[in-house]
Amino acid sequence: MLTLYNNAYSTCSQKVRLVLAEKGIAWEDRQIIFKNNEHIAPEYLRLNPNGVVPTLVHDGHVILDSSVIMEYLDEVFPEPPLVPRDAPGRAQMRKWLRYFEEVATPSVRPPSFNQAFLPRFEQLSDADFDAAAQARPLRKHFYKRMGKGGFSDADLTVAYDGFRQTAERMDAALEGQAWLLAGDRPSVADCCVAPLYDRMDDLGLADLWRGAPHVAAWLARFRARPSWSATFYPGARLSDTLDALGARRRAPADLVAC
Ligand SMILES: N[C@@H](CCC(=O)N[C@@H](CS)C(=O)NCC(=O)O)C(=O)O
Fold it and tell me: Is the dihedral of CA 11, 56, 233, 7 positive or negative?
């Protein structure tokens, strides 16, 4: 009934897996392997013309975009609620979702590519790299900006600044409450951003929220939930597969300093 096309270490996939696990929904796992270009294969593009994961298929309906999928799941499987039932509460939740999509989500990409994904591309000829960028409907210009040499220190500085701002805002909101919205369990707003923290931590960048104790406590609280271990199974972190990815680690201090 529910099929999720997703990838183990994709943060957008992890958002949706957290919601599925919090709700205890059974689903079919269809892994999309990036290095085999399965996300830009014609049969997958027919399902998701953006050439990204995740994609949810439910009773023949194709649902795209991780944040849309999270809200869809809450509508179709209302218990336990991960979306506020009142309009002002939903507006609060969407305020966070849009802010995360504008600031935190793009902040995670430059360090992720520089530290983990670049080796896949830097061995390509210029023509093959161009073709790889052109083949990505949503990310053509992002890949061109990265180039075979990776994102610049200026790009990394913008990314770190955005993530620090996210942590500061969340820290203020989390003072005196366990989760971003009222309630005794994580909402889709928490599920949206938590995988981004896990990724930054995995990249050695946890210093970005060193001055945000409520964020650190929130992350520890989330990591103690069964939904977390269901989502972050072995292989779901870049550090689990760094060798397979041919990744290089740079010293965090070196990265944060720029
Ligand atoms: N707005 C989309 C973005 C999805 C997205 O960027 N997914 C990444 C993985 S987290 C991807 O599939 N990237 C493919 C690529 O870089 O070619 C969503 O939230 O679903």
Answer: negative
- Alpha-carbon distance of 115 to 65, in angstroms, equals 25
Residue 157 CA to ligand 1 centre (angstroms)? 22
Q: Which residue from 15, 124, 138, 192 has its CB within 8 A of the most atoms of ligand 1, so it is best to mutate?
A: 138
Domain count for the chain, please give it.
2
Q: Are residues 240 and 219 in the same domain?
A: yes
| Residue 191 forms part of a structural domain | yes
- 121 φ/ψ angles, rounded to the nearest 5 degrees: -105, -25
- Contact in structure between 137 and 45 (CB atoms under 8 Å): yes
Three-state SS letters, 78-110: CCCCCCCCCHHHHHHHHHHHHHHHHHHHHHHHH
C-alpha 54/C-alpha 59 separation (Å) is 17
CA-based nearest residue to 248, from 104, 84, 57, 117: 117
Structural domain containing residue 59: 2-76
Verdict on whether the full-model pTM lies above 0.85: yes
Beta carbons of 216 and 81 less than 8 angstroms apart: no
* Tens of pLDDT, residues 92-120: 999 999 999 999 999 999 999 999 989 88
